[in-house]
User: Fold this.
Amino acid sequence: MNKPIFVFFLLLVFGAISGSAQSSVRPANEPYELILQVIAADNSNSKSSIPPNLSETVRRLKTIYGFSDYRLAASMYVRAGGALEYKTVSPELAGANAGGAPAFADWSLRVLGRTAEVQTPKSIEIEGFRFSVRIPVAIPKADEKSDARFVYESIGITSARFSLRENVPTLVSSLATGKPGEMMFLVLTVRSDL
Assistant:
């Protein structure tokens, strides 16, 4: 076989294989409901309630972490197609030691689309997921008459790409809050808006 024709044939075959692999994700032309829920966990024994959609996630977390109390700290809902950037002020994410100072949450992602699987529920491909929250950290008072002061520190996660099941709350990450004996967990649910 002629060498240039063989090389051309190989390039054609590899191009077809990579093209078929890329086409396994349907584009995110339709809008999706994106729900990011933040679960806070500690040992306060406050007997907080968890929404029913997160009960299985919390049950799994209890097998991994030794916390006695899990509560929904924040819930963020967005209806979007393709890319999303979301910023909000959230006193709930600041924690009990913040003295009323809010936290600032910022998250973004790009929904690539639904995979072309036969099974149900379908997988949704997510790219460029980023979550950060700037939490207030108290600075000791100079004297009793001075007001409380805070500096803000960022905590968060960035993930290049992952997939999750449609309509299934999926644990994305755990984050230490800076408060001893407390963590937060990010749970993402993506619903098709069909």
